[in-house]
Structures are given as structure tokens and as C-alpha cells.
Amino acid sequence: MTEDVKEEMFNVLQAKFGFDSFRPGQEEAVEAAVNGCHSLVMLPTGTGKTLCYQLPSYLKSGHTLIVTPLLSLMEDQVDNMKKNGEKSVVALNSFMSYKEKKQTLKRLDDYKFIFTSPEMLQQNQVVERLKSLSVTLLVVDEAHCISHWGMDFRPDYLKLGEIRSVLGNPLTMALTATAVSKVRKEIISSLGIGSRLKEIVYSVDRPDIQLRVMRVEKDKDTRLLEMVSQLSGSGIVYFSSKKKADKIAALIRSELNLTAESYHSDLSPSDKRKTQSQFIHNRLQIICATSAFGMGIDKADIRFVIHYHLPSSPEMYLQEIGRCSRDGEGGMACLLYEAGDEYIQRRLQEDSLPTTDELAFAYKNEHKLKDFEDDHKAHLASYFIKQRLSYTQANNLIQERLDNKSSQLKTLIDYAQSTNCLRENLLNYFNESVEQRKHGCCSNCTKDLIVPFSETLKDASQWSNEQNWYNQIKMLFNL
Predict the structure, then answer these.
(1) CA nearest to 66, candidates 133, 116, 124, 120
(2) 3-state SS assignment for residue 342
(3) Within 10 Å of residue 155's Cβ, how many Cβ atoms?
(4) CA–CA dist 449, 416 (Å, integer)
(5) Contact criterion met (CB below 8 Å) for 426 and 335
(6) DSSP state of 23
(7) Which residue of 36, 120, 167, 326 pairs with 46 in a disulfide if CB–CB is 3.0 to 4.6 A?
(8) CB under 8 Å to 104, separation ≥6 — which residues?
(9) What is the mean pLDDT of residues 37-49?
(10) pLDDT tens, 244-261?
């Protein structure tokens, strides 16, 4: 890379993003793209992966196509770019009406940054329109979804290698926050980016986040409320149950007089956006959410993340606790664990994939699968059939997936029950070792932990005052 190009990189960094220096990993990712190298970029949650593809896009002609899994994440990223002055950006997704989609496709040449979902790329008219453009950078966000063993098995992600080929094999950047070595290899193979590849892999550890496990024998609700009452700043409480998220949000409001709302897939898109906005702008202190919440949320001062239920995997756990302390001022992640919690996750795992009988039915009645388009199990079975996999091959893949999920869950159970260093336990899964210990490290290393929050943050009483004011406004305007 010439000095002139490097100088141009830093000029764009200052002019477009307002930064004088890169965060760890960003400069390497930008240089890889500028030098025409494919890249797999694994950086911890909250370290600015979006800049890795946005900056080199300004140094290249043509269009940047960003594939991202969640519509809410897509909308947030597009909104953030627009707020920062980028007008040449659009989200092509199922939120659009037929008319809006038709108009957007017609004007697609006008947009530098085009966000879409893997499902939208299965529509012929979308792919044909993209083929007519000069896509010079393909970005695959949350790339672990490509892998059979990623956090969420998404069949349409597995087709991205084919889409890439149809688009002329553009320069590709795959982004993820947590992917073990096996998953990274599967991402590279599936996308077909093995040649001229730069792997940029940083530690998943976040030393500024204190790790805790609280083992409870009964009355988990009371223990959670006690903990929340002692914490300050913004926080997220994660649940596997939508009903439980609703219940605890109501309890926090009534028992602790704090601002809290629930967030899950049953909410309308407008309610989701409203809740996110209130949280980002400090009108809500606490979000009680399922895993549907958090990706792309641009809030640097989240101080605590609590898991009421056991997460599905170490990858998911690190993704979710990584939303804490993006400003580096300190945060706390706590897992509430009660013996038997794992049975909820096992049931969810079994419900997420077709059973042997369901798969057999699908293979014998392929013509009926179109009647179950909204059923994720039928969608997966249909994918296997279209890939010309035999019933035995498909069933073996499902059983392997279940075995892998079981292994991931066992790692988390061991973590919850461990009496050794929690950070070491978690990092061992990713074949890493502890490099830094801050704030007492974890609840097994230091028994009398203090909350590692900045003293300048609002305390709980200030949040309560804001809530009273907020409730008065709601009553005045009948909101």
C-alpha cells in the first residue's frame, strides 16, 4: 500500500467518521479490502466492525452490498449511516411494500450502500437487478450463520456462495464476533474466498466486563430484582421466554419504580423501534429481552447484562454480554443459574429442527411444503431437498447439529457450575487464554466484587426521577 493511499485512508477516517485513529483490527480489515484481498474479520462485539467495510467503500468505485440477518439490525445500520450524513444508502427488505420495492429496485444505481437479507437474495428479480450493477464489495455480516454449526442455522445463508458467483465473485468481507476455528473454515469454504484471503482474528475476551455467576435454589425473580436494585446505568436482562420477559419488566416497574420494557418477536416493528429509541436515548433504563434484541444497537454505555435463562451456546453468550461497556468504562455480566435451567434450552433445541418423522414426511410430500412457507422446519427440509440431499444425508446433518448444540450447552452448564476462573473457562472454548484481568475478573476469582462502573454515571435514584417525569408526560398526552 502506497503512502498516498494510506494518507487517503486516514483522511476518510477523520472526514467521514470523526476519528483520528483506528480501533484494534479495523486498520487491517480496511487495508485488506483496499489491497483487493478477501477477508474474514472476527472482532469482539462493540469494536466497530461496520467501519471495516464502510471506509474502504469510500475508496472504491461501484456498490457495496451488505447482507445482514435481522431486519431490525438492517434498519438500525441504515438509520445510523443516514444520521451521520450518508444519503446514498438503502435497505432492501420485506418491510417494503410492493410499490416501494419496485421503486427501490428501479433506482438501485443511485445507492452506494445496499443492505439486504439472505432471504431477499433468493428472489430472482432482486438478483437480476444486482447483476446489472457493479458490486465491488460484498459484505456478509454475522457470517457465523453460514456455518452448519453457527448460532442460528439459516439455510439461505448457505446459498450466499452461489449468489456471490452469480454476481461475478466480487471482493468479499465476512464479519463475525464469535466463531471457533471450525466455523471460520466453513465460512471461507462456503463463500469460496480461500485465495487472496486475509484472516483478521482478535480475542473474544472483554477484560472490561466483569463476569459473574449467581447460583440460586429458588425464587429467581426475587434474586434478580435484588440485583437490579443495586445496579446503576443502562442494562439488558435476557430471557428464553417472551412471557417471562413481559412479567419481569412489569415487576421492575412496579416493585423498583424503574423504567423498563420488554422486547421480543411478538412486538410490532413500530413498537420495537420505539423501545429501541427510548433505550438508546436513556428514556428506558432496562430492557427485558429475548435474543431478538441487541444486534446493531448503537449504545456505548450499557453497564450490565444479566441472563435469567441459560443461553444456547458460548458464542451466543459472548455476543450478548459484549453489548455491555462498549465505551470501555466497565460493565458486569451475570448469569443466574438454577439447577435444571438447561432443560428449557434442550427443549428449545429439539423444537428448532425437524424430527426424524417430520423430515420423512417432508421428503415424501415435497409438493405440500409450499403450504408451510412460514414454518422454519419445513423451510429447512425444503432446502435439503432442493440441494438434492438424500433423506439419510439430511437426517445425519440434523443429528450432527443436535449433537453440536448439546456440546455447546454442556460448555455453558460447566461454566455455570465451575468453581474456577470463569474467564478462563469461557476462553478455553475458543482456544484462548486470559491475557488481562480487571475489576476482580470474575465472581470465582474475587468473592467481594464491586461494580466496575464509572462514578460519573447516573445512579438508580436519578433514573427513578426520570421515570416519574416520563410517566407524567405519558399521562398528560395519553400515550
Answers:
(1) 116
(2) helix
(3) 19
(4) 18
(5) no
(6) P
(7) 326
(8) 90, 92, 96
(9) 89
(10) 999 999 999 999 999 999
For residue 148 the three cell numbers come to 452448519
Supply the pLDDT for residue 25: 94
Higher pLDDT, 152 or 461: 152
What integer is the mean pLDDT of 138-147?
Answer: 89
Q: Which residues have a Cβ under 8 Å from the Cβ of 122 and sit 6 or more positions away?
A: 156, 159
- CB neighbour class for 434 (10 Å; exposed up to 12, middle 13-18, buried from 19): middle
CA atoms within 13 A on the CB side of 332: 27
Q: Please check the confidence at residue 213 and state whether its pLDDT lies above 60.
A: yes
Extract the runs of DSSP E, i.e. beta strands, from 294-340.
302-307, 331-337
Give me the DSSP letters along 150-168: SSS--HHHHTHHHHHHHTT
Report which secondary-structure segment, H or E, holds 102. helix 98-106
Give CA–CA dist 224/209, Å, rounded.
19
Q: Cβ of 198: how many Cβ atoms within 10 Å?
A: 17
Identify the top-confidence range among 174-183, 292-301, 414-423.
Answer: 414-423
pLDDT at 48: 85
Q: Tell me the whole-structure pTM to 2 decimals.
A: 0.85
Look at residue 214 in the predicted model and tell me its pLDDT.
95
Q: What's the rounded Cα separation, in Å, for the pair 176 and 43?
A: 7
| Per-residue pLDDT tens digits for 63-81 | 999 998 877 778 778 888 9
As a residue count, the chain comes to 479
Helices and strands counted in the chain (H then E) = 19, 13
Per-residue pLDDT tens over the stretch 151-168 = 556 778 888 999 999 999
Q: Which residue type does 223 have? A: R
Contact in structure between 135 and 170 (CB atoms under 8 Å): yes
Please state, in angstroms and rounded to a whole number, the distance separating the CA atoms of residues 225 and 256.
Answer: 8
Give dist(CA 250, CA 265) in Å, integer.
18
Q: How confident is the model at residue 34 (pLDDT cuts 50, 70, 90)?
A: very high
Other beta carbons within 10 angstroms of residue 168's beta carbon come to: 11
Q: Taking residues 419-443, report their average pLDDT.
A: 92
Residue 413 in grid coordinates:
452448564
Q: Do 220 and 308 form a contact (C-beta atoms < 8 A)?
A: yes
pLDDT in tens, 9-21: 999 999 999 999 9
Domains and CATH numbers, the chain: 3-201 (3.40.50.300), 209-342+411-476 (3.40.50.300)
**Cβ atoms 245, 239 nearer than 8 A:** yes
Q: Quick one: CA torsion of 210, 215, 216, 222, rounded to 10 degrees?
A: 0
The C-alpha cell that represents 210 in the structure block: 466483569
User: Are 362 and 372 a contacting pair, CB within 8 Å?
Assistant: no
34 Cβ partners below 8 Å, 6+ apart?
A: 1, 5, 9, 56, 59, 60
Q: Which residues pair with 154 in a beta bridge?
A: none
